[in-house]
Specification:
Distance between the termini: 34 Å
Radius of gyration: 29 Å
Largest sheet: 22 strands, antiparallel, barrel
Helix content: under 10%
Number of strands: 47
Structural class: mainly beta
Shape: elongated
Amino acid sequence: MKLIATKIKYTLLLLIMSAASLFAQEGKSSAKITGSLLDEQGKPMDYATVSLLKANDSTVVKGTLSNETGAYTFDHINAGEYIIKATVVGYDRAVSKTFTIAEGSSNLIVPVLKIQSASHALKTVTITASKPLIERKLDRTVMNVENSVLAAGNSAMEILERAPGVSVDKDDNISLKGKQGVTVMINDKLTYLTSAQLATLLRSTDGNTIQSIEIITNPSAKYDAAGNSGIINIKLKKNKQTGTNGSITVGAGYGKYGKDDETLSLNHKEGNLNIFGTFSHNDNKRFNDIGLKRIVTDSTGKTTYFNQRTYMPQTNNNNSYRLGADYDLSSKNTIGFVVSGYFNGEQDDNDNRTYIGPNFTQVDSSLHTVSGLHQTYHNIAFNLNDTYKIDTAGQQISADFDYSRFKNNIVAQYVTDFFLPNGSMQQPQQFLGNITPSDIDIHTGKIDYTDPITKSVKLEAGAKFSDVKTDNNLLQTISQSSPYLSNNHFMYDEKVDAGYINLSKNYKNTSVQAGLRAEYTSSTANGDSLNVSQIIQRHYLDLFPSLFINHTINSKNEVSFSYSRRIDRPQYDNLNPFVYHLDPYTFQKGNPYLKPQYTNNFEFNYTYNKSLNISLGYSRTTDVITEIPGTDPATKATFVTEQNLQIQNSYNINIYTPYTITKWWNGNVNATGFYLGFKSNGLEGGNLNSGEVAYNIRTTQTFLPLDGYKAELTANYQSGLIYGLFNVKSRYSTDAGISHSFDNKKASLKFSVSDIFNTLRNDVTSNYQSTNLVVNQRRESRVARLTFTYNFGNNKIKAREHQTGADEEKGRVKGNN
């Protein structure tokens, strides 16, 4: 705090001196001096303190701060000899060569100054940087969870549910500002997983390994075009210290069942070599209680009422690992590799009871289904990356090659008993056994090129290919003594070849970036069900333009506009025509005829004083991929599947502002209002036209009552909304936690409670055509956690922080996978 206060006082002093100097020079002939600052990576050095000094005695003439592009300006400068000095905390100062302003000169451009990271460890001053939990940047919102109390002991999925504007429904589908179709990346890399597989990955990722979560609502052409509502990029931690060091984290939690988690991280940095590794393990048993009421009308007009209750305890045993290295072949060339993966197990023991009758109070018959599902998930991924800096002006080329393999298997057995109202057996017991192995192979490669053509113009270009192959089989038996036979084999192959170009230019107060991405998709779905083969092939080329304009009105007011076109291809498990049964009257099936959906996104932003941010957005999606419930009148079974609706219109407004109440209490508010409208003619014999205004409010309070202590309180409210054929009821929760650091800040103890008042529910209704149902779901959401972390080894700040790819603002951190 003293360091920050000193910097503020120094900056104010410079401004006062500049004002005095300007007053003294008024009316004299003067010149204008301009220049720019770059860091050692060639990135603009923003908000550096820049001083104009007299060359003969180093007297300060004027002072200013560099802007977001690293540029600075001094006006009304008299003739004479001068030097420029630039300083930033944590960097060596940069000093220009002496230059001369001649009598009658009007403008002078100082050569670019490069500021290098501090070349030695700080021995007498300890700098502790504390980022706010929620941080708003120009093109994204960042949730800095690295030091958050509420992140300790939670999984990536549980942390993601607390991110601004993000919601997760009863089926683990992720929405942003009410819209589904979110692309999730980990360390700037696509996961290429279905929603169910992604949920498994996120629930097995320890929150202690996460540095930040970036929410990008309107990505540029540099990013993959997938994701109509934007991109969520999960950044994992990377050790930035020299020598050998690491950390160990152990935690325990309790809701209705006990939980535990352990993480070990190691890092060794010596010379040009950096080696890092992480291993995490967690055990988590939780419950899921679902109630389902539905009214089914058959072809004769007769109605049957189903009242169903399912208790689903779930036990997860998760293990994940990550090992990698970076090596500087030279000052210009860095290579790196990463091996990561997980091996997880899950056991679901479900108890389902269904009561059937002419109304909900009268029972004609019932059934009791007991099922056990044993699931295994294995993944291993390899990444090789190389970054070459062509020159010191920032021109560079980088390449990434990735291979991932997923091997999953589910063994499920369902035993159903049918009863009459008096409790006697109605019919013989029914048995169903399923084995569903699934193999996924993913190959990707990409090359990115950056060229700062001039000081104000930058070119970015790149190419990428991806090849995803899935192989799914369904083996079934209807008797415990009979062998399992294959009755559905589904294979899917999707290749995407892409290229992009971005051109950006900075004017005096305006920056413009225009981009175009092209993606050619070739897919083959090959299904073999009960000896009936079906092949569906698609080939299509799409163009995805993007435009970004940012204008600085003055020092406190900025406006920006962005546009992008995006695509969402069907998830391959939704294309799979498999039928998955919960019981004889409830199942889920795929749709091999799904088409991709396309979205045009528009967004306008206004920022006041670098803090208050207001955004307005509109998007229009065609061929909307949406979950649709349906009913078979003949069998009276209810099912869900995916279909393409015709149009979705989305309007949204977001207001974000941080604030400080006292020196020990600060917070922020993030409020989003939106309207989702769906239109589709001829849907299940009717015309759909639905929509509703909804809103989400999230506030976070941070307290620093005593040195070494930190407390956080987060409250969230999501109003009811309409999504397709579903009416989703309101949801709300409150989380709190406190942490204490000790032993010279090497150790910390964190205690948190999620959903303190146990209010979180997922309640959904649907009433359209022949579908009439109510779903009430309750999960184990109130959990208390205690987490201990200890950091060991060398804690010196390293001489030069190396990033193995392009800079973080461009989302290309190599070796951090």
